[in-house]
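Design job #97: recover the sequence.
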């Protein structure tokens, strides 16, 4: 259903060119990077497109749009870079897509306060370049730096390469400005700790836009490291490599980057150490001792350097593939049937979890082409591809079983990409009564359920 009166109202509020009803544009902005083949049972939810797309330029304009939406009971879907991989911005009930792309200002960079204040639609890559001009850098450095926005990264609480040292995107957030579902604007104070009541930033971190539209953020930033050192170790078994990583973390070592992978090239651990010289050297030396003690073989820096230098390539290729289908009429690249899981578990259960997953995958003739620990020993990832005898229904079944197993092991089913429409059905199982608490907050703040409905099971 097209809300013609609402569209007329929006045209009166924003510059007419910032209110778009063109079919191809609407289709393009009604999808993120979740392909139908990876969406499994949620694939039909990706069919619905938004009814109108708006491009506000100021917080005030966002507020006007939300107030208009509220008056019409129309859903509002915040759109950052559109690179989410769980269908977090699928307009499952239609409505207004709010593209934050024009709100991409870098408002302030303060080397003294070690903060950057930005509009939420700024691309991570643009912010990273602006910071580097002042000898600074962002703590959040995901693969998707060239294609994702600050607002999207906060709303999914994304994890990047440096998370071992500085935590996920949410940990970089000091203060937020948010347009609430009523259209009112709130702003939290930009300080690193608070004991003056609950820290409301956490209502919006990892919440996929269901509690409001983030319009501004003040983020912690870091000095460019005095020294950066790369290291690669190879292990006979994943267990040995995992033993080394767990021991490093238990001891308190925090390499900026930790990536332990078991793939077609064997078991390898890439580490990057960053910071001031003495710290870098001490961490590198002690990590090497631990790896050698766990039967690791020191391969020198070369492989880890190549890994570091090429870390954005997948995202750049993704951006190019989108440019090829930029008229919105061409289908998005669907890719072959595969999936990737990113679960978090207690350290003590990771190896047992892997073994049990292998059993599940054998049952469905599915191949795990990679098992990995990224950034912390609790964070365990797998890449899955079908085998020769896999039936179409087998991949979804195997994935569901593996995700439920992570929950049964005391962990969670996803540590960085959000829940979107793909995993929403498993959230009640994971959160129990906690999800009722979230639902109660949602009903109070957004009784009409207009803010990104259908996400987080709301
Ligand atoms: C090639 C590739 C590599 C990737 N690598 C990583 C990685 O290394 N680490 C990682 O964590 N993720 C990764 N991702 C996933 C994705 O990039 C992240 O989830 C990213 O944080 C999403 O940012 P975005 O701006 O594209 O958000 P979008 O996809 O536009 O939105 C994501 C969610 O946030 C909401 N949202 C967006 N902006 C706002 C706002 N201003 N206010 C409120 N809600 C908002 C949306 O409604 C949606 O629910 C990758 C994706 C791709 C395609």
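Job complete. Output follows.
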């Amino acid at each position: 259903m097209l809300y013609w009166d609402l569209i007329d109202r929006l045209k009166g509020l924003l510059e007419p060119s910032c209110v778009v009803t063109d079919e191809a544009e609407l289709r393009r902005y009604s999808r993120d990077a979740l392909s139908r083949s990876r969406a499994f049972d949620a694939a039909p939810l990706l069919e619905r497109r938004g009814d109108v797309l708006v491009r506000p330029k100021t917080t005030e304009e966002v507020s006007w749009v939300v107030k208009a939406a509220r008056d019409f009971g129309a859903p509002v879907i915040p759109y950052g870079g559109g690179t989410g991989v769980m269908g977090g911005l699928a307009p499952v009930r239609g409505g207004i897509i709010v593209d934050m792309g024009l709100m991409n200002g870098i408002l302030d960079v303060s080397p003294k306060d070690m903060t950057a204040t930005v509009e939420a639609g700024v691309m991570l890559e643009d912010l990273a370049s602006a910071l580097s001009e002042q000898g600074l850098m962002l703590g959040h450095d995901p693969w998707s730096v060239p294609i994702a926005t600050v607002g999207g990264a906060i709303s999914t609480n994304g994890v990047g390469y440096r998370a071992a040292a500085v935590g996920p995107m949410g940990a970089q957030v000091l203060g937020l400005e948010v347009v609430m579902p009523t259209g009112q604007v709130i702003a939290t104070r930009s300080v690193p700790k608070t004991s003056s009541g609950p820290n409301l930033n956490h209502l919006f971190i990892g919440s996929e836009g269901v509690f409001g539209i983030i319009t501004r953020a003040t983020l912690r930033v870091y000095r460019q490291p005095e020294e950066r050192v790369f290291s690669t170790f190879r292990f006979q078994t994943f267990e040995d490599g995992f033993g080394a990583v767990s021991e490093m973390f238990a001891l308190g070592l925090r390499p900026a980057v930790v990536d332990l992978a078991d793939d077609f090239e064997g078991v390898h651990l890439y580490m990057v150490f960053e910071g001031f010289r003495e710290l870098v050297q001490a961490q590198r030396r002690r990590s090497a001792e631990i790896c050698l003690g766990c039967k690791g073989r020191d391969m020198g820096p070369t492989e880890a350097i190549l890994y570091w230098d090429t870390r954005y390539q997948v995202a750049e290729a993704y951006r190019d593939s989108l440019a090829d289908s930029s008229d919105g009429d061409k289908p998005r690249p669907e890719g072959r049937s595969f999936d990737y899981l990113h679960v978090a578990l207690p350290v003590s259960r990771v190896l047992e979890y892997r073994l049990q997953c292998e059993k599940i995958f054998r049952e469905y003739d599915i191949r795990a082409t990679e098992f990995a620990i990224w950034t912390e020993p609790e964070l365990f990832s797998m890449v899955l591809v079908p085998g020769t005898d896999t039936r179409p229904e087998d991949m979804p079944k195997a994935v569901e079983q593996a995700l439920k197993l992570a929950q049964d092991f005391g962990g969670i089913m996803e540590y960085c990409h959000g829940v979107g429409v793909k995993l929403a059905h498993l959230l009640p199982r994971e959160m129990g009564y906690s999800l009722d608490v979230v639902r109660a907050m949602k009903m109070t703040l957004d009784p009409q359920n207009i803010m990104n409905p259908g996400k987080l099971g709301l």
